[in-house]
Design goal:
single chain; six-stranded antiparallel sheet; SH3 type barrels; globular; alpha+beta; about 120 residues
Length: about 120
């Protein structure tokens, strides 16, 4: 997968640190996430689509992927890319931690397709 660097400095497959707002909107916390939106999407918008990452590896749900190369992705602990996706403003990204390995990214894409009921393009 050829990586195209964007004006924002972030690309699909980058693992980033994001300020996540709690679902009840009572606060926020910095959490890792992987960028799942296409580079084209990010170039034409001020937003990016991310999948949340958690270090809670004891519970894998539909849409989740246990990251094989978590160190290469810049993560501190074994982690799971979750099926929890969000659209955020690009300005909410604090920094880039690393890049998801190709095999992990392919698995994440497949799991998100399954979770959303999307067919793979032929």
């Amino acid at each position: 997968m050829k990586r195209m660097q964007l004006m924002t400095g972030y690309s699909r497959g980058d693992v980033v640190l994001v300020n996540f707002v709690f679902s009840d909107e009572t606060g926020e916390r910095r959490r890792p996430a992987v960028i799942v939106s296409s580079d084209t999407y990010q170039q034409s918008r001020q937003e990016t689509i991310i999948a949340a990452i958690t270090s809670r590896t004891d519970r894998i749900l539909v849409g989740d992927h246990l990251i094989g190369d978590w160190r290469g992705a810049g993560l501190l602990f074994p982690s799971v890319a979750t099926g929890i996706i969000r659209t955020i403003k690009q300005g909410m990204i604090a920094k880039r931690l690393g890049t998801m390995a190709r095999t992990d990214m392919q698995a994440i894409e497949g799991n998100l397709r399954d979770a959303l009921g999307l067919k793979q393009r032929s």
